[in-house]
Design brief:
heterodimer; A: 292 residues; mainly alpha; 2 domains; 82% helix; B: 261 residues; alpha/beta; Rossmann fold; 6-stranded mixed sheet; 4-stranded antiparallel sheet
């Protein structure tokens, strides 16, 4: 009833904090069906809010391309550095770990059962298509996504968003667009580094275990298993991860009026939803691979 | 200033003001208010009477919940991109400054200029330095706001609001929490701005300030209004404030009455 009234009243308003709070603050329902219904409404409201916010962000990126570039371009570079360059040492470590723990062991296991000819396709499926992009997205979500929510939530709670509006500065253009572009490019680049690092360190591990495989054969198999679709979908997937992680974290930080004490709780919710969104995007791309 | 003296720059007819944090809650009802170019208004009221919300509505930060609001003669129901030019003619100083904590004081002041005119830092520097000097903020130019005392943060916010050379300046309780020396500076500076400061080419600005204490604003040529019990009451000049029988006006003047007796 209430949800219908909210939607009838104003679609755009439906993602506002006050509306979702109606469900969160209401007394506990007495039956499981009521409970599930409430969860479903909350989920729908969140999807609606995130969708609206993503569309608004896309609209601003396209419409305000080139506006105030002396302010926005340095901010984009700053975000690329934050969501990309600054994370390189951590990614180097993770690439080594991934290579030693997963790739190296896989190579060894395949060699033991005489299935070394499957190495290329196994590596492409495990590292290039799945593990590399998803792991990169999760790490950026943890390191930069949470910082986004906290920064924007604090800015919102301290009235900085109203201050931007008073100065005629579009908060989405100034605060969100650089983060979205920076994170999309950051995750794309970091995924490439992570995959290359993991494959290289994986071979190193296999080499140390005396697996009878030359570097030439190892990389040749991987290259032969890669198709144009892998490159295209990898670029699309990592960009989508970056875009949606930025949208989810910025939405929770900015789109709702917050009090300072609510910021930490909202950060946890944003990370949870970020993980869910990444898994859903991954599922969509698995379908695309299967169809293609 | 494009407006001729006497023509309303702010005109509200039956305007209802919603709370900034909860649009479903009306804090002031049926505001009928007209501000002519060059006027200096002081809107007083107790805490939580809706002063900040009224000022934010006036600046175009939120639409009226009812009634009609015209800014510079244009309907201000929805402030979009098309109305941006009108909004930029209004400067707003928040209570507490609301500076951007990641930027230095100078970068805060430069931001509107750089964003709206696509200036580089170097291009904005001359104007920013001049304003910082005017506000006595030059030594704090490279400091971030969290390391600056509240008195000076408020001045930095004033510089930021003035950098685009607005026609109307709205100030939300600018004297709140200031020391005596800073209060004196503000009152003097705002009077100069209202009469036409040389930094702004001698052009008189239209000023609206909110206050929870009427006493510092005593001056014959200023106009006063009261917000109380969801009502906006235009009182008139200082003589009318002094002769008002309204209990709240008397409370806002209480200290002065105590001094007189």
């Amino acid at each position: 009833m209430l949800y219908a009234a909210v939607v009838r009243g104003n679609l755009a308003k439906a993602f506002e904090f006050t509306d979702t709070q109606v469900f969160r603050r209401a007394p506990l329902p007495r039956s499981y069906t009521d409970f599930l219904g409430r969860k479903l409404f909350l989920f729908l409201l969140t999807v609606q809010g995130l969708g609206a916010f993503a569309l608004i962000t896309l609209g601003v990126i396209l419409k305000k391309n080139g506006v105030a570039k002396n302010v926005i371009h340095p901010r984009i570079r700053q975000e690329i550095a934050r969501a990309g360059v600054a994370l390189l040492p951590m990614f180097f470590f993770v690439a080594l770990a991934l290579g030693f723990l997963v790739v190296g062991q896989t190579v060894s296991a395949l060699a033991k059962v005489g299935a070394i000819s499957y190495l290329g396709s196994t590596m492409v499926i495990v590292v290039v298509r799945e593990l590399g992009p998803l792991l990169a997205a999760m790490l950026v979500l943890a390191r930069v996504g949470t910082a986004n929510v906290i920064e924007l939530g604090t800015a919102r709670a301290l009235g900085e968003v109203e201050a931007l509006e008073a100065l005629g500065i579009d908060p989405v253009h100034y605060l969100i667009v650089p983060r979205v572009i920076g994170m999309a490019l950051g995750i794309f680049s970091l995924t490439i580094y992570l995959i290359l690092g993991a494959l290289a360190s994986g071979y190193l591990f296999a080499f140390l275990q005396d697996v009878p495989l030359t570097p030439g054969d190892y990389f040749k198999q991987i290259v032969e298993s890669l198709g144009w679709l892998d490159f295209a979908l990898l670029a699309l997937k990592t960009t989508a991860f970056g875009f949606f992680i930025a949208v989810v974290t910025c939405y929770h930080g900015l789109a709702q009026p917050l009090r300072l004490e609510e910021v930490s709780r909202v950060a946890v919710r944003a990370v949870t939803q970020g993980v869910i969104v990444c898994v859903l995007i991954d599922a969509v791309f698995i379908l695309l691979y299967l169809v293609a | 200033m494009s407006e001729v003296q006497g023509i309303p720059v702010i005109e509200m007819r039956g305007v209802n003001v919603a709370a900034m944090r909860d649009a479903s809650f009306t804090v002031v009802e049926d505001v009928n208010w007209s501000v002519a170019a060059g006027e200096f208004w002081v809107v007083a009221g107790p805490e939580h009477s809706g002063k900040s919300d009224l000022l934010m509505l006036t600046a175009g930060l939120m639409p009226p919940a009812g009634g009609s609001y015209r800014l510079f003669g244009n309907d201000a129901k929805n402030f979009g991109e098309a109305e941006l030019a009108g909004r930029l003619r209004v400067g707003f100083v928040f209570q507490g400054g609301q500076l951007f904590n990641q930027l230095t004081v100078a970068a805060n002041v430069a931001l509107p200029l750089r964003y709206q005119k696509n200036f580089t830092s170097a291009e904005a520097e001359r104007e920013v330095q001049a304003l910082l000097e005017l506000m006595e903020l030059t030594p704090l130019a490279d400091v971030t706001p969290s390391n600056v005392a509240a008195n000076w943060r408020q001045r930095a916010a004033l510089a930021r609001a003035l950098v685009l050379k607005p026609d109307v300046l709205l100030l939300d309780n600018p004297l709140a929490g200031l020391g005596a020396r800073h209060r004196h500076w503000w009152l003097q500076f705002l009077e100069q701005v209202a009469c036409g400061h040389e930094h702004f080419g001698g052009r008189p600005l239209t000023l609206v300030v909110t206050a929870d204490d009427l006493r510092p604003w005593q001056q014959a040529r200023r106009k006063f209004a009261l917000l109380h019990g969801k009502k906006f009451i235009a009182l008139g000049d200082w003589n009318e404030v002094e002769t008002s029988r309204d209990r709240m006006v008397k409370e806002l003047l209480a200290a002065q009455l105590e001094t007189a007796t």
